[in-house]
């Protein structure tokens, strides 16, 4: 007994399914990974599509391709490898799909703050120390001269710690900033289970223009603008007036020329009439003389 042959419509449907283009579709989503410094890491991302798709792994900050397979293998990672990675699938002329995944690398605290920060003399100044690495710091301390402060207030100085979405921020606030504060180096040190991290920060004075100078500059600029507008208005008015005068002069010149032309025409007409009269008289005289000679 043999099975019946497949129905023609079923075969056609199967053929259509095989040859029909399909945009990229995620099969295995990449998962956020936490690992320790020095470990090996494998990130996995699986896609399906038709025709066969092209797969690339990159970091979010770069377009350099790290891998073209479903897996991205990183050996002996460092804290510099931490961040976001992008798994992208491309079906030519059909569609593109991508997924982002974050890699966390545990290590000593990394302090990312400006080495030089600024404050205004006599105002409240701030020196900031940010730790964005993992794991979060267990302890943060500020040290300057003979002073050490982890939290709270000491004379003119106050330390506050804030947990942000991307790390921990420790702020040293200085009330009534003085000359001595610009001559001091501030040491921010953080500790976690992998060890310490340290940053040295210098406070420099920020120049601020006096209110009088700012107000004077504003008034001076306003006066210049007004003066410019007045001068422009006068210039345009004089130019328009000059154009009107020139136009009037041209009309007068035209009228004068017309009058002179009429006078000349009148003189020429009188002269022409006189010449014609003399010519007629001469002709009459000649005719009379000829008649007399014939007689």
UniProtKB/TrEMBL annotation:
Molecular function, one GO term: cell adhesion molecule binding
The keyword Transmembrane helix is annotated on this UniProt entry: yes
Primary localization: membrane
Any one annotated GO CC term: cell-cell junction
InterPro entries according to UniProt: Cell_adhesion_signaling, Ig-like_dom, Ig-like_dom_sf, Ig-like_fold, Ig_sub, Ig_sub2
CDD domains xref list: Ig, IgI_5_KIRREL3
Pfam family, one: Ig_3
Keyword Transmembrane helix (UniProt): yes
Ranges for domain Ig-like: 24-89, 108-204
Annotated PROSITE patterns: IG_LIKE (PS50835)
Membrane topology: Single-pass type I membrane protein
Protein localization: Membrane
Parts of the chain that traverse the membrane: 211-237
Keywords from the UniProt entry: Disulfide bond, Glycoprotein, Immunoglobulin domain, Membrane, Transmembrane, Transmembrane helix
GO biological process: cell-cell adhesion
PANTHER family in the record: KIN OF IRRE-LIKE PROTEIN 1 (PTHR11640:SF14), NEPHRIN (PTHR11640)
Record's protein name: Kin of IRRE-like 1
Record organism: Antrostomus carolinensis (Chuck-will's-widow)
